[in-house]
């Protein structure tokens, strides 16, 4: 995709939280690109910096946190230089976000049609009837049956899966160039989850929308994303296309994540576990953040932060001693 301009380029992004206990480096030197029509998955344990990366892209970091370094290029323009008003005009229009809990998107005391019409008219000078028709089409596009009836409903009258579809429809109202999806299917049952994932794939392919899908669930990301960025302690430790990451991982942390997936272990065998716990963002190790949990650790790992090593093609990792075989 080198001849195509990426929709989003995150370059050496750093987002820190300045607390009474010290500086928490929630996002530390994160870089990745997302191209039109591409889905990039950000995966990792809780606290790895996935969601903060997504919020940083949209300028949604509240005090005591702030972006202290790096750039977020949206179609070549650095969003970190935008004013709050300019970002508000961009959010919900050219860039949309889907939250994990749809009730963070939906107002519980307003009907669905009221909320969707307001969203349309906030960024487009159209009549109320035209906005309503656009809202109806958006609901139909995400597979909601009887969209005219659903428009008249309040959020509490819809199931969790239906509310999440409405949230996705709102994100797609203006046919954005980029969507940040923060674990939007985590609370849903497997059947509804599969339906929503299929709809998202179709919508992105149809509208050439780029998407960053934040998740801790490798199985979900494997079936949805084109490329995967594995995050640990605020950094991307390995990235590559889906097949490479799943079949030929080289970073010990990625291998540990894959080994903990039940589908990768024979019946009756114990799941692989990554020993220890992730370090606090307030007290990261001097060298590689994964070194206290790594079976291949050396003195170099304990004292030096690994740079990005290119393993071939678009496959890269941050590891002084990459594993050259699949260990799952």
From TrEMBL:
Name of the featured protein: Methionine ABC transporter ATP-binding protein
Family per record: Belongs to the ABC transporter superfamily.
GO molecular function: ATP binding; ATP hydrolysis activity
Keywords: ATP-binding, Cell inner membrane, Cell membrane, Membrane, Nucleotide-binding, Transport
Domain ABC transporter: 8-258
Membrane-protein topology: Peripheral membrane protein
Record-linked PANTHER family: DIPEPTIDE TRANSPORT ATP-BINDING PROTEIN DPPD, OLIGOPEPTIDE TRANSPORT ATP-BINDING PROTEIN APPD
Pfam annotation, one family: oligo_HPY
Compartment annotation: Cell inner membrane
Subcellular location, principal: membrane
Gene Ontology BP terms: peptide transport; transmembrane transport
Source superkingdom: Bacteria
One Gene Ontology term, aspect cellular component: plasma membrane
SUPFAM superfamilies in the record: P-loop containing nucleoside triphosphate hydrolases
